[in-house]
Amino acid sequence: MDTQATSEDQFVQRSVDLARENVDAGGKPFACLLVRHGKVVIEATNQVAQTGDVTAHAEIQALRLAAEQGLSDLGEFDIYITAHPCPMCLGALYYAAPRAVIYAATREEEAEHYQDGNQYMTLETFYDEFPKAPAARNLPMRQGSSADPAASFRHYAQINN
Ligand SMILES: [Zn+2]
What we know:
The chain has a four-stranded mixed beta sheet, with helices on both faces. It has helices spanning about 5-25, 50, 60-70, 85-95, 105-110, 125-130, 150-160, and strands at about 30-35, 40-45, 75-85, 100-105. With about 160 residues, it is α+β, with helices and mostly antiparallel strands. Helix 4 links the parallel strand 3 and strand 4. It contains seven helices and four strands; from the N terminus they run H-E-E-H-H-E-H-E-H-H-H. The protein binds zinc ion (ZN). The site of zinc ion has 6 residues, from helix 4.
């Protein structure tokens, strides 16, 4: 095993250990590390239970901390997470565009012990909602009526081009 594999394994393990600590603190079992050039720059844990903010997943918390520290370009960062991300966090990770995302548990390994969801989705069904047509999703969703729904985009293009 080379040095890089060893440090990657350590960061994966740290994401698991930090998540375990968050459980002991009354939180949910997820953590996220932002690592640049082999050094941990940001550590965050899921804060949904502690704050009541449904978006306070570990990945989102880490990205917010990065922004607070002025880190807007994450292209040199590797992001380590306790489990394969939920769709919200996967979307956020696409926006963040890190060098790589490394997760510890698969969603199947997570689901053996942990459940998440509501009347619209579960851990098992959440990703299946996305390819559906809006009207076919469990979340009630429809396009509203507007005389000019693209007005803000046209305005943006006029000001910025
Ligand atoms: Zn998430």
